[in-house]
């Protein structure tokens, strides 16, 4: 059952699926490069100057994710052939919503004055927390332009172009991206008939429908190189029977954490005034 759930989670929330994950028990600390000076050219008598390197550090703790479904014994007995697929679909939907939310909009570790529980640091949250938000571009709703797209794409450093995708929910894809035209009046969103029907691209980057994104948000991101996730405990499913109530609890459980490795691999384009709906966890 757990294997089927992981498969469906990846299909529903591709951003989570595109992240390269580690599976280290306990707390994982990672050193990240921040800025670095280039090498210089010298003549023979001139000594080499010291380069300047600055480093950051991210720490991934274990954040608990859990979701339970209660099923009556009558349902189990009367619909046995459909029971396991039903559990897979429901737990995948709910666990996937939690993982998708965590990777894109998770709040991170709570401070002393916060009341929320520990969550992964979502990439959108991290970009919005940056001073002066240099990786965010805003646009007027229903007036998304070619210049908006190009300005956002320009914020991604060249080294992260391979593996760069665009993530948005269905509403944003079909009401904003699909109606946008370039400066010559041609649609920006095109179907890729060479690599397969149903694959759509903007500026050569694949557009992926992800339900964890809010209305009006368009995320340019290379999650495989710009985001790190550590899975302390892979998804497991436990059951508990209740005789008097004649039902069974099916509980999905995982321990996961994640954070942004480099801001240069991400850029966010969002409608002015902010997103208009809340992600369902």
Give a verbal description of the structure.
The chain has 281 residues and is an alpha+beta fold. 27% of the residues lie in helices and 31% in strands. It is built from eight helices and 13 strands. The strands form three sheets. A seven-stranded mixed sheet has the order 5-13-10-6-9-8-7, sandwiched between helices. A four-stranded mixed sheet has the order 1-11-12-4. A two-stranded antiparallel ribbon has the order 2-3. A hairpin with an 8-residue loop joins strand 7 (190-191) and strand 8 (200-202). Helix 1 (2-12) packs across helix 4. The longest helix is centred in the first third of the chain and has 26 residues, at 80-105. 30% of the residues are buried. Residues 277-281 have low confidence and may be disordered.
Keywords summarizing the entry:
alpha+beta, 7-stranded mixed β-sheet, 4-stranded mixed β-sheet, 8 helices, globular
What is the topology?
Blueprint: H1 2-12, H2 14-18, E1 21-22, E2 28-36, E3 53-60, E4 63-72, H3 73-78, H4 80-105, H5 123-129, E5 136-139, H6 146-153, E6 165-168, H7 170-177, E7 190-191, E8 200-202, E9 205-209, E10 217-221, H8 223-226, E11 227-242, E12 247-260, E13 266-271
What oligomeric state is this? Answer: single chain
Q: Strand order across the biggest sheet?
A: 5-13-10-6-9-8-7
Q: Name the poorly predicted regions.
A: 277-281
User: How far is the first residue's CA from the last residue's CA?
Assistant: 21 Å
In short:
The protein is of the alpha+beta class and 281 residues long.
